[in-house]
Protein: Tetratricopeptide repeat protein
Organism: Duncaniella freteri
Amino acid sequence: MSMKPSSRNFISISWAQIANDERKSIPKVIMCLIFMPQNYEKTLKQIDVSCENCIFVVATRSHYIKIPIKMQRILRTVPFIIFQAIALLSSAQINTDQVMRIGANNLYFEDYVLSIQYFNQVIDVKPYLAKPYFLRSIAKLNLDDYLGAEKDATLAIERNPFIVDAWEVRGVARQNMGKNREAIQDYDQALSLLPDNRGLLYNKAMAQQDIKDLDGAAETYLTLLKRFPNFDGGYIGRARLRLEQKDTIAALSDIEKALEINSNSINGYLMRADIAINSDKNYASALEDMNHAIKLQPKYAGYFINRAYLKYMTDDFQGAFADYDYALQLEPHNTTALFNRGLLRAEVHDTNKAIADFSSVLALNDKDYKTLYNRSMLLAEIGDFDSALKDLNQVIDAFPDFAAAYFMRYDINRRKGDMTSAKVDYDKSLALAKTRVQISPLIPNADISADSIENNPDSNSKEELADNNSYSQEQVKRRFTTLTTIQDNSSPEQIFNNKSIKGKVQDRNIAIEMEPIFAISYYTSPTELKMSGDYIREVDDINSTRMLRFVLQVTNHEPSMTDEETAQNHFNSIKYYNSYIAGHEPRAIDYLGRAMDYMTLRDYEHAIADLDKAISLTPDFTLAYLIRANARYLNTKLSNNIGEQHAPKIQGIALPHAGQLRAAIADIDSVIRLSPSMPIAYYNKGVMLAGEGDHTSALQCFNKAIELKPDFGEAYYNRGYVFLSLGNKDAAFADLSRAGGLGIVPSYNLLKRMSSK
């Protein structure tokens, strides 16, 4: 390019060059147009147009490019169309930086779900950038979406392999998924770029220990502590390694060094307490260390549960009760605290309250066999033999070799007077007395019987105990009837080179269930992640006619009616439709309008009746079928709660639950026939089928919904839920990760629970 010497600078581009390389050159010219001054016509007249083969466009007040004379007329004809379109493009480019910054702000404030939505927007516009993938990987890591974090970190590395933190994030994600060898490779790659990084060395040592490369881990800890001799976490990590090597003295030495460096090292106190309990049953010393830990971290329920055990072992029953009560204030659904408090109440003969605690555990997990066993014992104690047998039968079904359960059932049947059954159980218990019991289903990963180690002389550690495949009858009985503690007080956590990688998770106590069906409603519950309802073409078509008294919306989280005024509005609307329909020729839209008022007021039977009339008048009324399907489906839930005698009717015949559901699915099939490209129809059908246990058909429906709408987050979540129900954890992880990235918040809670198992 040549520069024309003058008080104004000219940039000349050959017209032929643009013709030959249109894709590259024209955007350059267009980007200059955005700076055209308001008086562009006057400016164009001032441009030197002596060069017919050059184009001139003003870039700034002092820089412009030549334009052929014949192009001036075109520019004068449609300048604002061009300029406005270009302004939007330029604005979009600027906004990606702004959106990235907002996403990073949300990441800093630990609003990980919302930050992901912002990074998604940047990636949609500029998928070639590494940074948004990297930042999104951090958000997913903090939400325990390790699979998603691994994938995003990989995409960031592919775009820029010199982002050290991306290697680190991927390593941590892989380590949490048990891919320790791959994690070590990532840490080695990061260490090649930052050889003296403390966090990378620490995480690598933990990964080496996890794959039982104890010598390699020891060497890495040695390197770490030589370079960072005042790093208390390094000594704690090596202490854990030395305990695994059965070198308790060296482990204690490292713990003392860590506490000397940092008197606030929680893990130091916890590990020392564990050693005191397991080595010489020094409960008083352990209790002192647990007190230190609780002062440093007073909001963790597990510490109070374990301290309650220590107080129990030192005969401080009142203190133990107080700790269990406080643990349940922190985590009302903590089954370990509920179970232990129930056992303690049973021991002090507070039987009814003990039964209440055990019932609370079973409400959260009806397959908790230890709790069933203990509740059965207490129910028998108060004379409720039938309920006691019901609980005990479940225990025996799960553990058919458990002699004590048969003996208890013998005693209950004897007290009932059923001597025939009692004799069978008595003989069975004697026959099993010397056998061993397989009880692996009884031992969850998260907790362990508090006295199992001290009562098992052949075991040297919790891990060794948990690895055994069978137990003696006496050991099993103890495990069913003794206090439970939170396993491994001192759990190591990865540390990070980048302080923004915090590792905090969304840990809400919410019920795990499928996302509900989408409904047509007059109201929605907007959130930061979803500011408006979903889209169905038929809903938009009806809204455009303005023939209804309210605007239809699409949502799967319909808000509850909370004020009388809103309810009265819909009662008044029903009166309006009653009057209008009575005095005019019936129209399908009027029946649908009144049905929507009934739906809003949860009067499903009248809604179904009106929708029947709408469909009879207009047999291809897609939306009427969809709303009627929802009404019938919701009625199935009502009939479950209020009994079959109140089930809705079709042509005067009361339908049982199965009949209602079949009618709802038939309506959905009509929607699909009339509108085969509606993803919500397939989704709703999938929810209905999954709720009835037809997982195969439900998967087909969710597959189709996702095919029609690839960003259908609720469909990914529900498909992941179904995969999990079928035992396909890999597919479930992938779908839940995708759903989380699309803003379905419960995905992360479910991913966390899956990861902890």
Notes: DSSP finds 37 helices and 13 strands in the chain. Confidence is low (pLDDT under 50) at residues 1-94, 440-468, 499-511, 641-654.
